[in-house]
Amino acid sequence: MSSSTLYLLLTLAFFLQTALGADPLFHFCSDSENFSAYDPYEPNLHKLTAFLSIQAPPSGFGMGSIGQNPNQAYGLALCRGDVSSQDCETCVVEAGTEIRKRCPYTKDFFGHIDNGNMFFMWNLNNVSEPQTFNHKTKQLLTELANEAYANPKLYAAGETKLYGSEKLYGLTQCTRDLSTSDCKKCLDGIINKLPSCCDGKQGGRVVGDSCNFRYEIYPFLNSL
After folding, report:
1. Residue 27 half-sphere exposure, CB side, CA atoms within 13 Å?
2. Is 3 helix (H, G, I), strand (E, B) or coil?
3. At a CB cut-off of 8 Å and minimum separation 6, what does 199 contact?
4. Can you say whether the dihedral through the CA atoms of 35, 36, 41, 46 is positive or negative?
5. Which of 177, 212, 174 is nearest to 191 (CA)?
6. Alpha-helical segments (H) within 10-110
7. 61/53 Cα distance (integer angstroms)
8. Is 16 exposed, middle or buried (0-12, 13-18, 19+ CB in 10 A)?
9. pLDDT tens across 64-109, in order?
10. pTM value?
């Protein structure tokens, strides 16, 4: 059995509902490699999720490994950039429990741009002027991508004016195992998915293993 990794992308906005304790919005189980019950890898996996629940909350990101080859478990945890340390800890603890329940004998990997498990979400309501709205959405997200990759947290959030008093709100974020250049490349890639994901929609998200964005016509970020 080769050394593999546990990959945890943990964000309050994307994989777990904003209300802590709710069901995850989405989860993926890798079919590339598995382990069996009572395998030496299993206790390393449990220790790893506990370790990440301690390491991640102070900065919103944690990464590490537990054990020795060939049963070494690697992982990372990411909380959204506006989430408090307390909520981040709760999220990582709950996500660690959920991933062991939903993917009980699965191994996965991380460490480079990986959007193989990408998913889209969108608001069901359409905007009245889709062409203008789409342009403003891409413009905002592109600006935020440029801010995110230059930020040590690889995260940016902001807003722009739409029509009259209406505003558009957005965020972009990468996992912090990426280099700044890979973060920019990852965000540019998913922003180009806008026509497939959210054409003319009042809100939308593209979430990959390595980066994500969200936009809405209402405020959705926490004030820290």
Report:
1. 19
2. coil
3. 130, 134
4. positive
5. 212
6. 41-55, 85-102
7. 10
8. buried
9. 889 888 888 888 889 999 989 999 999 888 888 887 787 776 665 5
10. 0.79
